[in-house]
């Protein structure tokens, strides 16, 4: 718990610093731009608070540095696309599930073991897409570790952001 | 490895441990072979001891050796064996440590090997010195393998009877500890021991044929070890057991499980994954009731997505609320400070008007109108200071915030819970501790690069001091 609050504090410090940097060049911003800047700085702060020890933080930093030259909208598009992709896969996997169930009920040719394996594989793929830097996780153990870490840091981020939003 | 051979541990023979030290880089099959080998050596060692007794006093000393309390402490395994053979019935009562089922299993397993040995030995002692040639002949075959006994055989007998005591005195203590630990883990251990026993029995049949052909290379092996190992074998024993511990914990095979290296590695991997999954289950709400990996992964995916969406939403909200990006650095801390100042001011007011404080205490909901007004009045200088600090804040919002906090003082603790996440203070339980926390909070925030408002600082500190004195 102590660790968690430490993480939050570190994140807050870094985020505020990042916001200062983001805000300094251009004074006038639209709400979407502002939102993107806030989100980007928050993500970066989270990644830096993890000190680049994990895959996902490194991936976030790498993506940000890659996109820093390009437009901000590009990031948005990419994220949107990814999101849709993952959604599609989820849907498809659910469909597969249904189809498999039907098949199973009709004919018992489909082994339940292989079906479960396929389901797990699909979901693992989705998770890999969802967690930044998940593509670099070759095995499931590291993917699980990354997911754990990512969830923890996301929760810290959300806590801090909620505090800020509530203080307004 | 260490615990796969419980009998090894509990007898704690130096030979066994040397072998065990070797075994760290062996395959499973090799380990089994090593165990068989060690058991055979044990057998031969016992033969030798019995033979020594035969040399010493004649045939009826077989009983004497087991009634000797020191040696009874050393070789409980032997005692058990002998008890199993019923050469001596009541020596088991002398046993210093209570036997636990897993040990019994181990000994019963040992019995199978040592039966013949004991029968052999007793016959040898019965015949006294007569078949001594035979015995030595049998021993010379493996005389190089048991390190404690082998170098000692040509030496004087009295020293030999003394030396195992010395070497195993420390080891005996250790084995006692181990046995205790075993008892703790007994519930788990019994099942595993069962399976191990099964395996050992299975391998015993095939092992019998192998032993003869393995004898010569193993002897060389142990010989090399003998040269390497110094006299303090007990030290090495403990070291070896420490080194091997983690090796065992991960690799354990239950009944019917494969023991080749691939499936062992696979099992370790799966265990790791399930461990992580358990953590994730704790982390992700509503994931406790779901069994099955696919469902859990679904839940995790949903949770991560919701978290990401929440981040989006919150950043949107922040962007909407704040017209400028550099909003929250000074603003936030200023607000926090303001709240703290208000809080402390309220305390001071209570001190100033003890009638009100005494009547209601601190946590009373109903604060009188004049109470809520007076801190507001007192608060003005602080606010001016803040606004003088070059901050652009809407006065209206502050007033609103102030009114809110003052009119409903119960809401203050919640705001402090909020602030506590910045300053890593656990949610305080009592009001006094909360005050102290606030005190430190203020300093923390003061340290985090806020150049403004030294005046409210001192004021609030004074207030808290007042509270402390009270």
Task: Enumerate the spans of chain B where pLDDT stays under 50 for 5 or more consecutive residues.
Answer: 1-26, 53-245, 352-470
Structural class of chain A: mainly alpha
Provide the residue-averaged pLDDT of chain A: 73
Count of alpha/pi helices of chain A:
6
* Largest interface (CB < 8 Å): A-B, 61 and 50 residues
Q: How many domains make up the 3D coordinates of chain A? A: 1
How many β-strand runs of chain B?
0
Element string of chain A (H = helix, E = strand): HHHHHH
Q: Order of helices and strands of chain B, N to C?
A: HHHHHHHHHHHHHHHHHHHH
Extended strand count of chain A? 0
Runs of chain A in which pLDDT lies below 50 for 5 or more consecutive residues are 71-83
Strand % of chain A is: under 5%
- Major sheet attributes of chain B: none
Gross morphology of chain B is elongated
Multimeric status of the protein? heterodimer
What percent of the residues of chain B sit in helical stretches (DSSP H or I)?
over 70%
User: What percent of residues of chain A adopt helix (DSSP H or I)?
Assistant: over 70%
What overall geometry of chain A do the principal axes of the alpha carbons give? Answer: elongated
Q: How much is the radius of gyration of chain A in Å?
A: 20 Å
How large a portion of the residues of chain B is in β-strands, by DSSP E?
under 5%
Q: Termini separation of chain A (Å)?
A: 26 Å
Organism (chain B): Morus notabilis
GO cellular component, one term (chain B): nucleus
Pfam families (chain B): HLH
Biased composition (Basic and acidic residues) (chain B): 182-211, 229-250
């Amino acid at each position: 718990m102590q660790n968690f609050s430490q993480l939050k504090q570190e994140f807050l410090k870094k985020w505020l610093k990042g916001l200062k940097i983001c805000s300094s060049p251009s004074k006038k911003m639209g709400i979407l731009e502002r939102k993107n800047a806030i989100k980007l700085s928050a993500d970066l702060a989270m990644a830096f608070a993890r000190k680049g020890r994990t895959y996902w933080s490194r991936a976030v930093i790498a993506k940000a540095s890659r996109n820093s030259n390009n437009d901000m909208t590009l990031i948005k598009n990419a994220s949107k696309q990814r999101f849709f992709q993952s959604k599609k896969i989820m849907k498809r996997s659910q469909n597969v599930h249904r189809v498999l169930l039907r098949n199973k009920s009709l004919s018992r040719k489909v082994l339940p073991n292989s079906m479960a394996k396929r389901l797990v594989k699909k979901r693992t793929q989705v998770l890999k897409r969802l967690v930044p830097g998940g593509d670099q996780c070759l095995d499931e153990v590291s993917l699980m570790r990354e997911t754990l870490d990512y969830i923890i840091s996301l929760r810290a981020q959300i806590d801090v952001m909620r505090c800020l939003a509530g203080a307004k | 490895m260490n615990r796969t051979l419980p009998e090894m541990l509990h007898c704690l023979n130096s030979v066994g441990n040397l072998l065990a030290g070797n075994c760290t880089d062996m395959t499973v099959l090799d380990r089994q072979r090593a165990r068989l080998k060690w058991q055979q050596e044990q057998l031969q060692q016992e033969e030798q001891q019995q033979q020594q007794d035969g040399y010493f006093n004649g045939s009826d000393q077989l009983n004497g050796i087991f009634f000797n309390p020191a040696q009874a402490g050393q070789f409980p395994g032997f005692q058990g064996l002998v008890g199993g053979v019923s050469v001596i019935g009541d020596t088991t009562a002398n046993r210093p440590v209570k036997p636990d089922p897993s040990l019994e299993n181990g000994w019963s397993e040992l019995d199978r090997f040592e039966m013949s040995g004991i029968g052999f030995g007793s016959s040898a002692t019965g015949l006294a010195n007569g078949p001594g040639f035979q015995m030595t002949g049998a021993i010379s075959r493996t005389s190089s393998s048991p390190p404690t006994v082998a170098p000692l055989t040509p030496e004087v007998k009295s020293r030999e009877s003394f030396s195992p005591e010395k070497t195993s005195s420390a080891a005996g203590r250790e084995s006692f500890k181990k046995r205790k630990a075993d008892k703790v883990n007994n519930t788990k251990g019994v099942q595993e021991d069962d399976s191990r026993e099964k395996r050992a029995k299975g391998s015993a049949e095939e092992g019998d044929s192998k032993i003869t052909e393995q004898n010569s290379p193993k002897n060389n092996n142990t010989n090399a070890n003998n040269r390497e190992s110094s006299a303090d074998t007990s030290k090495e024993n403990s070291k070896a057991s420490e080194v091997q511990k983690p090796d065992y914990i991960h690799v354990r095979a239950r009944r019917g499980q494969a023991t080749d290296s691939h499936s062992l590695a696979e099992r370790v991997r799966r265990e790791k994954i399930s461990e992580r999954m358990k953590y994730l289950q704790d982390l992700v709400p509503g994931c406790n009731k779901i069994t099955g990996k696919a469902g859990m992964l679904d839940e995790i995916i949903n949770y991560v997505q919701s978290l990401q969406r929440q981040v989006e939403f919150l950043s949107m909200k922040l962007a909407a609320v704040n017209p400028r990006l550099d909003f929250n650095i000074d603003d936030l801390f200023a607000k926090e400070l303001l709240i703290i100042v208000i809080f402390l001011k309220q305390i001071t007011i209570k001190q100033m008007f003890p009638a009100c404080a005494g009547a209601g205490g601190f946590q009373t909901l109903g604060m009188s109108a004049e109470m809520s007004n007076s801190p507001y009045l007192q608060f003005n200088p602080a606010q001016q200071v803040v606004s003088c600090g070059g901050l652009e804040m809407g006065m209206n919002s502050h007033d609103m915030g102030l009114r809110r906090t003052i009119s409903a003082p119960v809401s203050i603790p919640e705001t402090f819970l909020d602030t506590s996440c910045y300053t890593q203070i656990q949610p305080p339980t009592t009001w006094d501790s909360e005050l102290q926390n606030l005190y430190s909070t203020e300093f923390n925030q003061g340290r985090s690069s806020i150049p403004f408002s030294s005046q409210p600082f001192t004021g609030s500190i004074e207030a808290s001091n007042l509270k402390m004195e009270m």
